């Protein structure tokens, strides 16, 4: 029996930790999405920087179907071919020598934090447990990762937190220098802050963090859950910064919409996750890895990565033109196809109004905090869809500014 469902059903039967939009999308193709009423939307959100190749990319559909008829799941009692192929390709493409698979960004970061702690305690002693992270950071919603993330609104109210976590402002090297010591086990950072407002590290800061970690024998963990997999126009953002982390986490666009996360590190560090120290039933699931392998094959090509930078220019030009007319942004910041239009004093705190007006005009965008409208379209969004999306965004801006 098929059950008729509407948005009202959400309030009836779902835990109220989300407040989803009024529309229910039912179908997607490339950078377009259709809702229950058949209304069409241009997608500049990509499921929060997840659908890096748009919706239902034929190569990903094919990978999913082929693997879906072969083998879905085994658990880690056995290994499997898709996981090994994907791991080999990630190793070949990055600084990493060893890969751990899981199902989400939070789990990848949870693994990274536990590994950093275990490595430091094994290598230097029980005192070396301090984790330093940055205010406005976001690292996921498990209790450890949300405590490391620098936003009290997400981590408070759940009782005692994991300890020895210190927060300092992003892009403030002196503040980091003041708290880092030989007791520091790891510094965790997004090499382009996403949820916190689309904030790029300065060159001096990124290099300075690496140098301070080296000085105090602390591991540098890059959370590339949002910034990675081509988002910035490099396969991973660290490549554009010229700063190599000791541990890197990936998720979101890694599976192009199929849940998967990964932690990448070196052989020497990985050695401290001995048999039985950590795990995940689904980690390295063949379906997820088969899709992610197809994603990586497409994204890690000069055409796609160069295309990200071309599309960035188109979107920046479009947003500047809109701003010249409506004067609502103080700047457009970010890198590649992770861009933030920062609302000026007149519109401060109203990013959600822009998001809702965009939906009215047939466009999906994101916010990054109360005063930044975030754009994270598919890395291969067609030029025609960029132009149409920008035209719709202009109407949404007119709607907000006129109101
Ligand atoms: C989304 C995000 C996470 C959490 O990923 P989940 O898959 O939701 O657990 C962690 N870090 C960053 C930088 C993110 O953007």
Automatic annotation (TrEMBL):
Positions of post-translational N6-(pyridoxal phosphate)lysine modification: 252
SUPFAM superfamilies linked: PLP-dependent transferases
Listed CDD domains: OAT_like (cd00610)
Entry's localization field: Cytoplasm
Keywords (A to Z) from UniProt: Amino-acid biosynthesis, Aminotransferase, Arginine biosynthesis, Cytoplasm, Pyridoxal phosphate, Transferase
Any one Gene Ontology cellular component term annotated for this protein: cytoplasm
Cofactor binding, note field: Binds 1 pyridoxal phosphate per subunit.
Pathway the protein contributes to: Amino-acid biosynthesis; L-arginine biosynthesis; N(2)-acetyl-L-ornithine from L-glutamate: step 4/4
Residues that, per the record, bind pyridoxal 5'-phosphate: 105-106, 138, 223-226, 281
Binding site for N(2)-acetyl-L-ornithine: 141, 280
Cofactor(s), names only, from the UniProt record: pyridoxal 5'-phosphate
UniProt keyword Transferase, yes or no: yes
A matching Pfam family: Aminotran_3
Enzymatic reactions: N(2)-acetyl-L-ornithine + 2-oxoglutarate = N-acetyl-L-glutamate 5-semialdehyde + L-glutamate
EC numbers for this chain: 2.6.1.11
Entry GO MF terms: identical protein binding; N2-acetyl-L-ornithine:2-oxoglutarate 5-aminotransferase activity; pyridoxal phosphate binding
GO biological process, one term: L-arginine biosynthetic process
Note: May also have succinyldiaminopimelate aminotransferase activity, thus carrying out the corresponding step in lysine biosynthesis.
Subunit organization: Homodimer.
Family: Belongs to the class-III pyridoxal-phosphate-dependent aminotransferase family. ArgD subfamily.
NCBIfam families associated with the record: arg_catab_astC, argD, PRK01278.1, PRK05093.1, PRK12381.1
Name of the featured protein: Acetylornithine aminotransferase
Gene that encodes it: argD
